Amino acid sequence: MIIVISIGICILGYKVSADKQKRQKIEYAEITLKSEKQKKDKLTTAVDGLFKDKQQVFLADDLKEETVSQVASTLLTLKTTAEDFGLEEADIDVDETLIKKKEELTQKVTDAQRKYRLQVRINGLFTESINSWNSENLTHSIEETTTIGEINKVREEVGLYNDEWRKR
Questions:
Q1: What angle do CA 94, 100, 101 make, to 5 degrees?
Q2: Separation CA 63–CA 119 (nearest Å)
Q3: Is the model's pLDDT at 132 over the cut of 70?
Q4: Phi first, then psi: what are they for 86, rounded to 5°?
Q5: What is the pTM of this model?
Q6: How many CB atoms lie within 10 A of CB 97?
Q7: Are 57 and 165 in contact (CB under 8 A)?
């Protein structure tokens, strides 16, 4: 009898502890979601800073790989879903606009990363780097060691874009 009662008390204590931990997780998630909304605004500004203008076609002229990587990693830490907190969707109210904004920002950062890497590869094909990708009059000489295979690989990747950046 004593053993059965002891086991019952242990099980009850475990359930109470688990419920308390879950409530703490929910409280933490609700508080964190509020601060994540503010973080989203800062990230939006940071993502906008990766580009030259509001159309977000051309990258900023002074853009560095570290800047793009830093924005991308900060964006990855943005918690928007119940799953990010280790909870069920029914446990907390998530902000759908925050989730959509994170997806939008992620797409823009991915685009910036791809364009940046392509621009670095393209710059490697020429004797001198292209300073402004927004310029219409680009007259650069191709490096003597550049092969047609390298040009075709870059051309294929650039062909994935259908915007003004591709034309330039």
A1: 105
A2: 11
A3: no
A4: 75, 30
A5: 0.76
A6: 11
A7: yes
